[in-house]
Design goal:
The chain is an alpha+beta fold. The protein folds into three domains: 65-261, no CATH class; 269-333; 344-475, Orthogonal Bundle (Transferase(Phosphotransferase), domain 1), CATH 1.10.510.10. The protein contains 18 helices and 14 strands. The protein has helices spanning 7-13, 34-50, 54-61, 71-79, 90-99, 106-112, 123-133, 149-164, 175-178, 210-217, 235-249, 252-257, 295-311, 344-363, 412-416, 423-434, 443-452, 463-475, and strands spanning 166-170, 185-189, 195-199, 269-271, 277-280, 285-288, 319-324, 329-333, 366-367, 376-378, 386-388, 395-396, 399-400, 419-420. β2 and β3 (195-199) form a beta hairpin. Keywords: ATP-binding, Kinase, Nucleotide-binding, Transferase.
């Protein structure tokens, strides 16, 4: 390679024409490789911004570092312009231009869309914009709730699925018959069980928001504020709502990150192996029994047990709110967290709460008979405090033997003896220790476990003596 190049050398090497008179030729020497990486980055940035769905990627990737702290801050966030604007094609651009003869749409159009239309759009972007700008219809004054579902889904559920990687579920709101509040629409962010967006759907008529009224009545002291209202029958209203939902979706990730992981979806329904369905609502669960189970007997027994527990102020137990023999369900509260102890200190706290309940139960000759970690839940928002649920197997002591319970998780005399007493619950305390999430128990708890799991019921300690021992370990 030559140490010195003339302009003529460069032109000859690149097969360029010879310089003519009265022409100025400029030769720029750039270090090898320097221009390539810079141009590549610039080209990639231009390609990313010009991609058909770049606006969706920008919303998904946005990292909100500080959540709005006031209603004013939230309103400002919902009304801000998009960082990457949405492309629009000629047809939709023409529709909006026609509607903007007075200029009232100019502000919202500037916040949402690119200034010039494109010839084509991706199927995803075209589908989203078509449902907002040129919807199929929004019903009439005689329309039912179902009539509006397509419009609502276009503006909310389907849109959120596209821009925030989540899923939505529709529930049947049976509040009329059970007092159970479950939103008509729940949106769950990504793989979390947290309902980050909930919707209550009503047909044409006076605007009512049962979800807001319900939240105002909860014991959590939630304060409800109306940030804005949108008329979805009007293009300006739909575009403003579109902008608000897109900006709102950027808050889902930081909100979910602040919430303790949930083992079941909010407002979800689970079905146990015996066919019992458990529906989770705002502040309670509804437990429905299948036809194959003697639901009448179970519900009558639950009524009696909970009436006696309430009369004697038994602590740390689930509360029976009401029952419905015809529909075969019971309503229970609160909604607990399936959160077994994670260390020895939490295990001691859980055992203390369980034993406080057992001391009170055994004092009135009641027994749970089905103590397993699945039936020990953590109180929400109360720190390390647990309570007992599922008294379907509960009974007065003594009771006759049963045959439908599993031998490995229940005291031996339940299945083998003609009768059994409250000592079956003491065996179950040992079983809880045996099946705790960690196996390296302190010697004191190993000793308690062995005492509780003794085959002879009369050799097992009492709930009261166990409570004294556990409280001593907590204080030590």
């Amino acid at each position: 390679m030559k140490a010195t190049w003339t302009i003529k050398d460069v032109l000859d090497a690149n097969h360029l024409p010879t310089p003519q008179s009265r022409q100025v030729h400029v030769l720029v020497v750039v270090p090898e490789g320097a221009s390539a990486s810079k141009n590549t980055r610039k080209r990639k940035r231009m390609e990313d911004e010009d991609a058909p769905d770049a606006w969706i990627k920008a919303i998904k990737d946005e990292q909100v570092t500080a959540l709005p702290l006031t209603c004013e801050d939230l309103k400002e966030h919902l009304e801000r312009a998009l960082h990457v604007k949405v492309p629009v094609n000629d047809r939709l651009f023409q529709i909006m231009s026609t509607k903007n003869s007075t200029g009232e749409l100019s502000s919202i159009l500037d916040k949402l869309f690119e200034p010039e239309p494109r010839e084509t759009l991706s199927d995803i972007t075209a589908g989203i914009l078509g449902g907002v700008i040129d919807p199929l219809g929004s019903g009439s004054e005689f329309a039912t709730e179902d009539t509006y579902h397509h419009l609502w889904d276009s503006l909310i559920a389907i849109l959120l699925r596209r821009v925030s990687n989540g899923n939505f579920r529709r529930n049947t709101n049976v509040s009329t018959s059970t007092g159970l509040y479950r939103p008509d629409l729940c949106f769950y962010y990504k793989n979390s069980n947290v309902c980050v967006f909930r919707g209550e759907e009503k047909a044409n008529g006076d605007l009512q928001v049962p979800a807001i009224r319900k939240n105002e009545m909860t014991e959590r002291g939630a304060k409800v504020e109306i940030i804005d209202m949108y008329d979805l029958g009007d293009l300006n209203g739909r575009l403003s709502f579109l902008l608000a939902v897109l900006n709102l979706s950027t808050l889902f990730r930081p909100v979910v990150d602040l919430i303790q992981p949930l083992d079941i979806p909010e407002y979800g329904t689970i079905e146990r192996v015996n066919g019992v369905q458990i529906a989770f609502a705002e502040d309670c669960v509804v437990k429905t029994y299948p036809q194959s189970m003697p639901s009448d007997n179970i519900i009558r027994n639950l009524r009696d047990l909970h009436r006696r527990m309430q009369r004697h102020s038994v602590p740390n137990v689930v509360v029976l709110k009401n029952t419905n023999m015809k529909k075969k369900h019971v309503k229970l509260a609160p909604i607990g967290l399936l959160s077994p102890p994670e260390n020895t200190q939490q295990l001691l706290m859980a055992l203390r709460d369980i034993l406080k309940a057992l001391v009170a139960l055994h004092a009135i000759n009641l027994m749970h008979r089905d103590l397993r970690w699945e039936n020990v839940l953590k109180y929400p928002e109360e720190g390390d405090k647990w309570f007992l649920i599922d008294f379907d197997e509960g009974a007065s002591s003594p009771a006759a033997k049963v045959t439908h319970l599993k031998a490995e998780s229940h005291a031996p005399e339940i299945l083998s003896s003609s009768s059994h007493t409250v000592k079956v619950d003491i065996w179950s305390v040992g079983y809880l220790l045996k099946t705790s999430p960690f196996q390296d128990l302190p010697p004191e708890l190993e000793s308690i476990k062995a005492q509780c799991l003794q085959k002879n019921p009369s050799s097992r300690p009492t709930a009261k003596s166990l409570l004294t021992a556990i409280e001593s370990l907590i204080e030590s």
